[in-house]
């Protein structure tokens, strides 16, 4: 039998063996931004499990761009060697290694979830956060500093330098994190951007930073390697970023060297009402794809082989990204192939455990 989920997808010069990607997932397991054995085993297991694309967790482009002091980072040359080890292993399993480049903006300087998640003050190892405007994410938290022109220039330069290091580290895909209420999304949404300069107000002004970061990244990222952008396709809040904005943005990004839009939602305001359910974000990926012709990735509560297959076979998205299901089962792609009746390669070491296909 054949299943669209297990047909290859090519973006630029890179071919993914199937349409299943590991969605970026913060592990909060780094010291000073360094990857370590945890990241090798975590990402490596999912390569053994057969995902076509493995996107590392949000890697901070600067120390102040970390969500927590425990975040992965790629702001200095010393971060590169261990990442090289990870990308080499991922490739050895026939998967493609991607990295999500991120700046947490006003949501930075918090404790990791299992350390309580609260704001970390500078005296306790935290730092002053930055954002488009001096508006905190949660009432009562320290206000971020509104970035000035030099600060914006540094953000762009940090993304560019991180892209250069990503290449040195052996990644073949970059995903820019412009979702979930982090810095780039904060600029895009009127709910967090109250600027009156050329980075605030109109849609064109609010997407300016993302376009500048995209251009700086594309400038140093090889033409044969794909560039993805993750967006929150809606703020789910009156007066916020809308799906219409997402469609308009995707049409622009299509002309700026971006190859796929990864359509998540929400995260920019705590009070948003989100109708969470199986595949609840898929319609956004579908709409962006249908209205712009831009390839898309669908993410969010996709947990079964059949759901994933339906999304890609019906052309709602070109790729599915799975997060929590792949934490529960790193071998989900191998299991999904079996369930869909597709014969895929298992690692030699595991061949004796490969189930026979039902005919
Ligand atoms: C432990 C964990 C860490 C996450 N970290 C990130 C991240 O670094 N970057 C990101 O864009 N999304 C992150 N997310 C969101 C996921 O990538 C994904 O969009 C979300 O969990 C919905 O997919 P799922 O229903 O398959 O889990 C994280 C989710 C989880 C569960």
Automatic annotation (TrEMBL):
InterPro entries on file: Aldolase_TIM (IPR013785), OxRdtase_FMN_N (IPR001155), YqjM-like (IPR044152)
Natural source organism: Hymenobacter koreensis
Record's keyword terms, sorted: Flavoprotein, FMN, NADP, Oxidoreductase
Family annotation (Pfam families): Oxidored_FMN (PF00724)
NADH:flavin oxidoreductase/NADH oxidase N-terminal domain mapped to chain residues: 5-340
Domain of life the protein comes from: Bacteria
Keyword Membrane: no
CDD domains the UniProt entry points to: OYE_YqiM_FMN
Phylogenetic classification of the source organism: Bacteria, Pseudomonadati, Bacteroidota, Cytophagia, Cytophagales
Keyword hit for Repeat: no
Name listed for the protein in its UniProt record: NADH:flavin oxidoreductase/NADH oxidase
Required cofactor(s): FMN
